[in-house]
Design goal:
The complex is a heterodimer of chains A (208) and B (234).
Chain A (H helix, E strand, L loop, with lengths): L1 E2 L15 E6 L3 H11 L4 E6 L10 H13 L4 E5 L8 H9 L2 E2 L5 H6 L1 H6 L7 E4 L1 H5 L1 H6 L11 H5 L4 E6 L4 H14 L2 E6 L5 H6 L2
Parallel strand pairs in A: 2-3, 2-4, 4-5, 6-7, 7-8
Antiparallel strand pairs in A: 1-3
Helix pairs in contact in A: 2-3
Chain B lengths: L14 H13 L3 H13 L4 H21 L5 H25 L5 E7 L7 H12 L2 E5 L6 H11 L3 E5 L8 H11 L7 E5 L5 H7 L3 E2 L3 H21 L1
Helix pairs in contact in B: 1-2, 1-3, 2-3, 2-4, 3-4, 4-5, 5-9, 6-7
Classes of the chains: A alpha/beta (208), B alpha/beta (234).
């Protein structure tokens, strides 16, 4: 785990006063940005590998181990994962552990706002989403795990039912925009950029 | 698996050597070699059913085990499936002629709001390979679409697939609609997809959760055997 370091916290809080956030590695940059923007010095962050998303069934055990490990040191722990393909198992585990987690099915949804995302689920059924993280890590999290580096002929079998790629942008970054458009072209999909900012992530962490 | 197959002349192998070699070729996604193996076995007088079950289905079963164990990943499974499909394309018309055993009929589809069909396609293929007649409704199916097909086809089994946490609850809508119409007990209902689990399957009133294509085949076989036993006792 990539633990935040309490010793460096300038606010003078002790771990007992702090909130320990156990997050998906795909949210590290965004959570640190929110911490900086909001001056949340009481918030310590530890991230689990984003690659767990390739095996969602492993997420509940990994989160539970991190919670148990931190429990003696922190009175308040928050899990910065949504359901993330665990089919309700992560929510059940967090409830059992007595810790809160993010609302919603996945990061596409809470970045856009869970209500807004759910509202257009039917119209955007054929949309493949990327976030800032996924644009940066497209090869590591999409292209290579799907085998497209080795077998480009599989592209239409894997993405043939999609029509558009929508880049849900957390930040204003022309480089990421251009990169996301390139990702869409590589997958043979139309392209759209939609600015979301941090969506529901900010209030959830603020209330943690 | 070995990649030193370049020097192997398939036609020079005995049956006992050729079948495991075909399993290897299927595992490695070597479509042309699998097709060649199918043709060789047929030319040697194998029945299409034996070629299908002993060479292709068994090979794909091994692929399924290694996928389950995290040794193979989606792309490798797709390449293996493409190879099996190519072999099945040769065998299908022959199977129809030779009257291979039919175990039952399944209507299968991905639920409303969901376009993900890789798992569902694998299940379709393995069910066909195991001797089930499969009516594949494709993606984004409403309850009415499933029910209309089940009744039209006189099916035994309904298979529903979903990849998304947001779409999997729709399976309950389908099952509840079947209940409302008094049709629930006419069909075995199998469900599958990455975010599903046995608890969810029980909660929505399905008959079984199938974690992969091989389990789907075994589960369907068990249910059909039970059904036949019940009919025999009646």
């Amino acid at each position: 785990m990539d633990h935040g370091t309490e010793a460096e916290r300038p606010g003078g809080t002790t771990p007992r006063d702090a909130v320990f956030v156990i997050a998906c590695g795909a949210l590290a940059r965004e959570i640190l940005a929110l911490k900086r923007l909001n001056g949340w010095e009481h918030l310590d962050l530890a991230c689990l590998p984003a690659k767990l998303h390739l095996w969602p069934e492993r997420i509940p055990d990994a989160v539970a181990a991190a919670v148990e490990e931190a429990r003696g040191r922190y009175a308040r722990i928050f899990v910065a994962y949504a359901d993330c393909g665990t089919g309700g198992l992560l929510a059940a585990r967090c409830a059992k552990l007595g810790v809160e987690m993010l609302e919603g099915p996945h990061c596409y949804s809470f970045f856009e706002g869970n209500d807004v995302f759910a509202g257009h689920a039917d119209e955007e059924m054929r949309v493949f989403y990327l976030t800032d993280f996924l644009v940066r890590q497209f090869d590591a999290f999409v292209w290579r795990p799907m085998g497209l580096d080795r077998h480009p002929e599989l592209r239409d079998m894997l993405f043939g039912n999609y029509e558009r790629l929508i880049y849900l942008a957390q930040t204003e970054d022309p480089w990421l925009d251009a990169e996301a458009e390139r990702c869409a072209a590589r997958l043979g999909l139309g392209y759209e950029r939609r600015f979301t900012g941090y969506g529901d992530l900010a209030p959830a962490l603020g209330a943690a | 698996m070995a990649d030193d197959g370049d020097d192997i002349i398939l036609s020079e192998l005995s049956d006992d050597e050729l079948v495991p070699q075909m399993h290897d070729d299927l595992y490695d996604g070597l479509r042309d070699e699998v097709v060649e193996g199918v043709n060789i076995l047929l030319a040697r007088g194998w029945t299409p059913y034996d070629v299908l079950t002993k060479a292709l289905v068994e090979g794909m079963r091994i692929v399924g085990i290694d996928f389950r164990d995290g040794i193979l990943f989606v792309p490798e499974v797709l390449l293996a499936a493409n190879s099996m499909k190519a072999g099945m394309a040769i065998l299908k018309p022959l199977l129809a002629e030779t009257g291979a055993p039919r175990l039952g009929k399944m209507v299968i589809g991905t639920v409303k709001g969901d376009i993900h069909d890789i798992g569902k396609n694998l299940v379709s293929m393995m069910m066909e390979g195991a001797g089930f007649e499969v009516v594949d409704l494709g993606i984004n199916n409403a309850a009415e679409s499933y029910i209309e097909a089940l009744e039209r086809e006189g099916a035994d089994i309904l298979g529903m697939s979903a990849l998304l946490t947001t779409t999997m609850p729709y399976m309950k809508v389908v099952i509840d609609t079947l209940k409302d119409k008094g049709l629930r007990d006419d069909f075995v209902i199998l469900v599958g997809g990455a975010p599903l689990n046995e608890e969810f399957s029980r909660a929505i009133g399905a008959d079984a959760y199938c974690r992969d294509a091989a389990v789907a085949v075994e589960t369907a076989r068990d249910f059909m055997a039970r059904k036949h036993n019940q009919l025999a006792r009646a």
